[in-house]
Amino acid sequence: MNMTTAVKTVFSKYVTFSGRAPRSEFWWWVLFTVIVSIIAYALDSAFGWHYDTLQSAGPISGLWSLATILPNLAVTVRRLHDTDRSGWWIFLTLIPLIGALILLYWYLKPGTPGTNRFG
Q1: Which residue of 83, 100, 104, 116 lies most exposed, with the fewest beta carbons within 10 A?
Q2: Using CA atoms, how far apart are residues 32 and 106, in angstroms rounded to an integer?
Q3: Is 64 exposed, middle or buried, given 0-12, 13-18 or 19+ CB atoms closer than 10 A?
Q4: How far is residue 12 from each of residues 22, 60, 69, 71, 74, measured CA to CA in Å?
Q5: What tens digit of pLDDT does each residue of 44-89 get?
Q6: Neighbours of 16 (CB within 10 A)
Q7: Residue 110 in 3-state DSSP?
Q8: DSSP string covering 6-73, please?
Q9: 74/28 Cα distance (integer angstroms)
């Protein structure tokens, strides 16, 4: 799967939390969102909409974040499904550092071969 296909797939499954997302779809989506976020932040700065803290976002960055929050959650849950884990494991991010490292390890693992309980 290439980046174009992955982005089209994620946007076509905008709020689809069922099914599976292969590693390529997930990581191409992550790369795409990081690139667009950098561009949005640069545009905010170019228009003079920058803020003193990194916790604030300009209007372009804010709109991009709002537009992609549900697809980000959906593709992440589908990625966890591909590793035969429930989407509820996403709440591991609430455990500082350790939770994110565990999830990163799972995201990097290949999916279960064949079918699993999620498809």
Answers
A1: 104
A2: 20
A3: buried
A4: 15, 22, 14, 9, 11
A5: 888 887 766 666 778 899 899 999 999 999 999 999 999 999 999 9
A6: 16
A7: coil
A8: HHHHHHHTTT--SS---HHHHHHHHHHHHHHHHHHHHHHHHTT---SSTT---HHHHHHHHHHHHHHH
A9: 14
